[in-house]
Amino acid sequence: MSKEREYYKAARRAAAAVNSTADIKNRLDSVVRNIARTMNAAVSLVLLDAGGTKLVHTSSRGLPQFYRKKGVLDAAKSMTEVITGKPVVIADVTNDDRIQFPEMAVKAGITSALGIPVIAGERCIGGIRVYTRERYDFTPQDTVFVTTMANLIALALRDYAALQEGSDPLKQPGQAEPSLLTKTRSVVFAHPSEEEFAGILDFYNIEWVYEPRSFPLSWEGETVTEMFTPDFYLPAIDLYIELTTVKQQLLAEKHRKLKLLKERYPEVKVTLLYKTDYDRLLAKYGFGPLAQTRAHGIDQVLYSATEINERVKALAAQISRDYQGRRPVLIGVQRGFICFMADLIRQITIPVDIDFMAISYYTGLSKSSVKVTKDIVVSITGRDVIMVEDIVDTGITLSSILKHLQSFGPAGLAVCTLLDRPARRLAEVNLAYIGFEIPDKFVVGYGLDYREEYRNLPFIGIPVIESAVENTGTAGTK
Length: 478
Ligand code: IMP
Ligand code: MG
Fold this sequence. Notes:
Layout: H1 3-20, H2 24-39, E1 42-48, E2 54-61, H3 65-68, E3 73-74, H4 80-83, E4 88-90, H5 102-107, E5 112-120, E6 123-132, H6 140-165, H7 178-182, H8 192-203, E7 209-210, E8 215-220, E9 223-228, E10 232-234, E11 239-244, H9 248-264, E12 270-274, H10 278-293, E13 298-303, H11 305-322, E14 329-333, H12 338-347, E15 353-361, E16 370-374, E17 384-392, H13 396-406, E18 412-420, E19 433-437, E20 460-463
Parallel strand pairs: 11-12, 14-15, 14-17, 17-18, 18-19
Antiparallel strand pairs: 1-2, 1-6, 2-3, 4-5, 5-6, 7-10, 8-9, 10-11, 13-20, 15-16
Helix pairs in contact: 1-2, 1-6, 2-6, 11-12
Residues 336, 367, 389-398, 442-444, 448-449, 473, 476, 478 line the site of inosinic acid.
């Protein structure tokens, strides 16, 4: 698909999402998400605070937490042109004084940046920043696309302000409504079970929109006489959900309306959900094992199955591009890599070979003593090798494996790790591809274990035992 067409589709999706919800947080998130997805980059939306001098991160996608939380930025120092209403293109963040925190940008793996102002009427109220990991020269077409999305944001904000106060923000000299930044999820639920359901979705990092849309069901002439408004919409799986109570007469009525909805709008996916069906639904859409375990022992989900999937796809695209015309050997070390490698290779579009190793740590000694218990079978001499890792912690395991592989004389040896926890790094390792940089917490799921448990969780989370774990990284076994 041409870039032009992808941009058109992203703009169309974002416009539809903005128009389908009154929740400002969801509106801003969907615009940001669509930019990130289409440009395959990290995106953040910053808005000026009420004083008009500070920028606040309002919605972001793909940025490590520490970068988002680096604090409010000084509008006068940070990509100033954005605030004056001009686009800013920065090819190399390390070498440009328009970046306020270059070390942090580097730590966040950012190389190039694009800043586009968000302009409401004639007043600049903030900016959209697009960041890429690899050096990238933004094109005029990119600028036009992000400007379109910025206009959508300005319209969403204006409409929101008008809805809130019956006022027009363009008439006020104050900047973006301060309430906007705090009242991000000001949903008023009609029923406690809806709030509970939203809570469950939040726990699993599943995006949702409350009462997204009303579907006209019956008409008398031009007049709509009957409508149906499903409780939730889950954009990630394109599904509308109607929760039900146990009251029989209400249930019959809902069934009737749902049947009508399906007849009138056959393309719309909608389901009726009993309270007891939550787990079943989550299981059906890939949140499986928790349905049984109720995510026992999981304190917090860091990355949902959907987020992991998006990130793995992006890594695979990058590898396919970088190794175009070659045939790399992907090597994994048992057993934590299993989910990552399985998903990764299915998204890579060039031919690859795969192989595996197993290692053990000499007991009683430090982790630096790694023994290869199962070696690779494929000959890698003169080949391009990509080492696929679940997580790089101290880097000691990886560096001794790399030394081992290097002894075979490969043409190249790169590392692709799903997770990078730089906080505990002891051995210097060069990571060519990183899925997520994670905080200094022990994590499980998606192949990673704590004493052989939790490997089959479809998401990555922090177990409750995290605080009890010495957090040396030794609690997980390979
Ligand atoms: P390193 O030698 O300290 O870098 O350790 C890397 C290995 O330790 C990984 O390949 C994992 O098998 C394991 N590990 C480190 N941190 C974690 C974690 O948070 N959860 C599960 N396993 C981990
Ligand atoms: Mg492990």
